[in-house]
Amino acid sequence: MTSLTTSPALSVRGLTKRFGDRVVLEGFDLDVQAGEVVSVLGANGSGKSTMLRCLSGLTKFDGGSVNVAGRQVRSGERVPEFAMVFQKIHLVPELSALENVCAGALGRLSFWQAWAPRAFPTDVREEAMGCLDRVGLAERAHDRARRLSGGQQQRVAVARALCQRAGVLLADEPVSSLDPAAAEQVMRLLRSLADDDGMAVAAVLHQPDLARRHSDRVVGLTGGRITLNIPPSALTDADVDALYAPDYAAEGGFS
Amino acid sequence: MSATLNTTPARRLPVPPRRRTARWFVITAAVLAVVVGLHVVAVRQTQFSLVQLVTGWHGIWAFLFGDPKTAGALPPDLSWKIVGPGLGACVVTFSMGLLGTTFSIPFALLLALLGSRTTSRNAVVYQLARGLMSFLRSVPALVWGLIYVTAVGLGPFPGVLAIITHNTGVMGKLWSEAMEETDRGPLEALHSAGASSAQTATHAVLPSVIPQFTSLFLYRVDVNVRDALTLGVVGAGGIGFYITQAIQEFQFNVMMTYVLLVMVMVIALDLLSAWLRGRIAR
To answer: pTM score, two decimals?
Structure first.
């Protein structure tokens, strides 16, 4: 078990990202402890998704430092400690749930160890079964991903992240495309990954209510800067309105 | 009864006129002029003439119902000595189309992988693969057939080689486009999980496009069997060759039998291929 005296699983200092002249992130700091769920709230274009993409190496950042498990991560470097879960889930629809989960292990396998989705080594397939069982979908292992419901697909995506053996889960609006019941189930799963498996979870959310109920801390982003970093119980409706004010302005006309 | 609720309809507002500028009229007139002009040139170049079609009616009559010297296309000669060999020739034509398509799979797959932005990183390799595919498909199977006939002689074998060559270009292009249109999300997900680009190709891109690949393959079998027919005309055997022979000997009733056989084969193949593609899409 992890103890609270160790350094944070994820530590971000002064993260800066520009697209041309436009500053998307400026001086972004974030610490996430092992076993902690941190929600990131903010309007469209506030830099939430860019922040996650910078951490996972999908986008290069221009300044600042990222430390994971005490090791510094270079800009654009993909490290196995970070696993990503996406709003649009991004499973391969034609492959089985099990094959999708196995794909999480690709980073530690050579090309010929798993040259095709049907050709994963037995130990990886067994580990993937364990991950599927962890998200409650062991009995759907051989079902094609596209046959599963949205919530089940997102849980398979979480199992893929587990099969990656990541310590930090970065979730980019993981429940935005799901119905309320499925969203609740996925949020409980993320909560339990933190509580029971000691993962550090950073989730970008669009639902302040889910953030209040499932996270240990809420971080608010406005225009690429942190404007809020509080426990969820302290999050007021006024805070939420202030965070999403740019969205209301952008929609225009009707208020 | 309906509309018993006392809701007031929304008040009426004048619809703002859609603005059409002088520029819009100029462009529309120019496009019309170009299209009409092209057709005038095309009619002249092809000597397209309805008058000639009408005055040539007795030629068509002789073809259909015969004249004292030759048998007409109607009724077709359905005797077994014609239908039997005709069926055999259909099998040859179908085999040419089938082999030409299946044997081009490895080459088409290789070129598609190298010539698709989702799987190819190197710009030079990408352009070379695209260029080779364009070249192979811009030369018709018929021309490839004539080339191979001079190399390996007459018969179905040069026909198969011709279809393999042309189909590699066409199917490679269709497959590479299917891969470029595929959702990049799963690819990005595996990339973020640390997969190499070769791994994302085999674990995300290829599995995602298998339904499209199969469907395009079936479509190509369909087209290539029809190409095999025309290859028969230039000496690659099969039913196409039988049809040419019958025409050269003015046996139009025999020719009609072969044409009917071709029709049955092409329709059957079309239905089968459409049915299979429908099953895959579900």
So the answer is: 0.81
Range of B254's domain?
Answer: 80-281
Asked if residue B4 belongs to a domain, the reply is no
**CB proximity B198 to A under 8 Å:** yes
In CATH, the number for domain A7-81+204-255 is 3.40.50.300
d(CA B211, CA B279): 10
Q: Which residues of B touch A90 (CB under 8 A)?
A: 183, 185-186, 188-189
Residue A218, beta-bridge partner list? A39, A230
Work out the minimum CA distance from A95 to partner chain B, whole angstroms. Answer: 7
**Residue B42 located in a structural domain:** no
- Count how many Cα atoms sit within 13 Å of the Cα of residue A222 in the half-sphere of its side chain: 12
Q: How far apart are CA A61 and CA A76, in angstroms?
A: 7
Please state the domain count of chain B.
Answer: 1
Edge-to-edge order in the sheet of strand A37-42: A82-85, A168-172, A200-204, A37-42, A217-222, A225-230
B39 is a domain residue: no
Q: Given CB atoms, is B193 within the 8 Å cutoff of chain A?
A: yes
Q: Is B123 part of any domain?
A: yes
Give every CB contact of residue B270 below 8 A, 6+ residues apart in sequence. B222
- Contact criterion met (CB < 8 Å) for B194 and A108: yes
Dist CA B260 CA B42 (whole Å): 32
* Max CA distance (Å), chain A: 59
Domain boundaries, chain A: 7-81+204-255
| Alpha-carbon separation of residue A240 from A208, A212, A246 (angstroms) | 7, 11, 11
The CATH number assigned to the domain holding B249 equals 1.10.3720.10
Nearest by CB to residue A111, choosing from B183, B198, B211, is B198
Q: Terminal CA-to-CA distance of chain B, rounded, Å? A: 42
For residue A88, give the nearest of B185, B190, B196 by CB distance.
B185
CB-CB contact of A229 with A220 (8 Å):
yes
Cis bond leading into B75, ω under 30°? Answer: yes
Which tens digits make up the pLDDT trace of B97-116?
999 999 999 999 999 999 99
pLDDT, tens digit (0-9, with 9 covering 90-100), for B156-190? 999 999 999 999 999 999 999 999 998 899 999 99
Interchain CB contacts (distance < 8 Å): A and B: 79
